[in-house]
Amino acid sequence: MAITAQDVNRLRQETGAGMMDCKKALTEANGDFETAKDILRKQGQKIASKRADNATSEGAVLTQVNADGTVGTVIALACETEPVSKVEDFRTLAQTVLAAAVSNTSGTKEDLLATPQADGRSLQDHITDLMGKIGEKIDVVSYETVTAERVVAYNHSNGKLGVLVGLTNTGGNEVTEVGKDVAMQIAAMKPIAVDKDGVDANTIQREIEIGKEQARAEGKPEEMLEKIAQGKLNKFYKESTLLNQEFVKDPSLTIAKLLDNTSKGMTVTEFKRVAIG
């Protein structure tokens, strides 16, 4: 049957796919709209399979904190190229992923992707559809939550970095400003743990061995290596764990001291730093 421009435009409006893709799908489906939609979805599945191993170094990181400030969510939706990360359909999809993440009580990526949308289809189906439309791999590469007495979020200006920080013992004080400062510290300084107790044993052992090797290369006596390595480990804690880091805005303070000065006993319970690229 003849495929009219009106038919093509209607399918385009309903699916968001390109004009040529819609025309090809309608032609293959002999004008049947539902069959044509299935063809376009299969096209997305083919692209997803074909580009499964492609790197996704662009995209968007979004955060949201609930109304009472006790639960924060951060997601990263990644794509292959920067231009795609700027298009409206991608940005809309990122907001859809965030909304689904906020409502997903299980906290797993698998359940997130299975979340039904308004049309009854899963979030993964919608992601696959957009892959078919734009011809690039799209993937939810991070999905994290933080629950605490108070959660503060920070989004970097490039849209590709987000931080959640959980605080306790806030004492009822206004903690938004100091929380934002701590979140920005995490964004800039990339701590690996809240405190030294949060550093895994393998990392500690590796740092000790590196310290010994450095001291040995400098000609230090063998009996001194362990002590020197422990000193280097303490420096590592100061540089790499959040509460022991110097506050970027005022190096005379550690983050632990900054928080305690704001409200006696205030500290960080956990944080999540999510970045693309």
TrEMBL record:
Keywords: Cytoplasm, Elongation factor, Protein biosynthesis. It is found in: Cytoplasm. GO terms for cellular component: cytoplasm. GO terms for molecular function: translation elongation factor activity. Residues 72-277 form the Translation elongation factor EFTs/EF1B dimerisation domain. The keyword Protein biosynthesis applies. The keyword Transcription does not apply. It holds the Pfam family EF_TS. Gene3D superfamilies: 1.10.286.20, DNA helicase RuvA subunit, C-terminal domain (1.10.8.10), Elongation factor Ts, dimerisation domain (3.30.479.20). Signal peptide: none annotated. InterPro entries: EF-Ts_dimer_sf (IPR036402), Transl_elong_EFTs/EF1B (IPR001816), Transl_elong_EFTs/EF1B_dimer (IPR014039), Transl_elong_Ts_CS (IPR018101), UBA-like_sf (IPR009060). Belongs to the EF-Ts family. Associates with the EF-Tu.GDP complex and induces the exchange of GDP to GTP. It remains bound to the aminoacyl-tRNA.EF-Tu.GTP complex up to the GTP hydrolysis stage on the ribosome. HAMAP family: EF_Ts (MF_00050). This is Elongation factor Ts. It comes from Rufibacter hautae. The gene is tsf.
